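Dear colleague,

Thank you for sharing your sequence with our group. We've completed the structure prediction you requested, and as agreed, I am returning the results in plain text so they can be pasted directly into your records. Please verify that the sequence below matches your submission; if there's any discrepancy, let me know and we will rerun it promptly.
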Amino acid sequence: MTQMSETLLDLLAAGEAGRPALVAPGRPDLTYGQLRQNIEALAAQLNSFGLGRGDRVAIAMQNGPEMILTFFGVALAATAAPLNPKYKQEEFSFYYEDTQAKALITTPGSLELAHAAVNPGMAIISAVSNEDGTISFELVKGQRPARATELAQTDDVAMILHTSGTTSRPKRVPIRHRNMVASATNISGTYQLVPGDRSLCVMPLFHIHGIVASMLSTLASGGTLIAPNGGFNALEFWSIVEAYKPTWYSAVPTMHQMLLSRADRNMAVIKANPFRFIRSSSASLPPVIMERMEEVFGAPVLESYGMTEATHQMTSNPLPPKPHKAGTVGYGHGVEVAIMDEEGNLLPQGEIGEVVIKGRNVVDGYENNPEANEKAFTNGWFRTGDQGRIDQDGFLALTGRLKELINRGGEKISPLEIDDVLLRHPAIAEAIAFAVPHKSLGEDIHAAVVLKGEAAESELRSYCAGLLAEFKVPRKFHILQEIPRGATGKLQRINMAQLLNLKES
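Please find the predicted structure tokens below.
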């Protein structure tokens, strides 16, 4: 029996030729017919430049239609290596070398640092916008002998990403076409996406969340992707909602909190353009934020759980009328989920252990890293590095990243619990609990907060003492103007003590 083809081009087959696929402010709409035709032409151009299957091509661009078309063109001809356009020159150099990139694609006249980092063997290509909304590739330098026109196959690596390494060198994650098709299909099914749905893409398109949840799942369903140039802008968000009427969007909790803080002055737009649902992923959504969002936006807020190694989504809370539970990340949709102990035994329902998963969305392993693969895979299960438990209804509650748990003198404490308590204080806008080194206890607990009202450290301590066991109360509160975040808006919990230059106490 021949295997069914599962490539990103196959994924786009659901879209009717004349329906809008890609829309953006100040740009002509692109239909599915134009999208498919353009990305096949882009793939052929790359072949003519001497690039093809197995070659890694770095892409450094802001969000927008150019980035999306470039990504598909590269993934169909070669392997896409999307990079954060805000990297420093040294970071670009590292990723070019680590992925063995054969070329760099940017938009004309942009990203001097990305260009400065290019090594002598790399080609440089410009993605040039055409008047009809399509793009063309122009070779700036580095012509190789042309290759025969050939599109990617099911098992080809569509994209190479890196894990967000906080304490060590990031690991390379090769994601195959079949992984991406499986994950996009799972997400589309989870939220019952249909051609009438319109997704507003606010997540960066160098990150797995934006690429798979916002972009691929929408296009897999034949729906319309709204892709503002430059990505997320909290000030412009509501004018885009008013103009384009999205039915849903997916974001990280920090973005949701920024939108929530501006909701009061945009209530007319919110009421006139209700979302069918709102999705949250890539970091823990404090239950208090979910409650406020549902009250203000009048839409179900569905928390999900994803990782690069699972091509993003592993679990999600379901749409109504099924229940969705605050403080959980739902259950697997097309993905098997279980809890495992340190020895590799699966644990019964209700017990706490490491979350493990199986599914066609899970990658085959890290690239050239047998040691990491041995640690990450046990009896066919991928070990996520997260701790959690599955309740009687099958919903997964995460109790923390194993390496983020605070071990205070033998007491294991989930910082998520402390975050949620702090965020319920009326004077606190943002909060993060984290470990600091301690001579006798090993670790102690501190918290960093951003205030929206007035509160002394003593008041915050007594507030926590009334709601948490004594050993969970932060020993010190750091009142900051803003909490440090990574490139995708994730809080830097593991690095907080270092970022605040806190020494052993």
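Summary note from our side: The mean pLDDT is 93.

Kind regards,
the structure core
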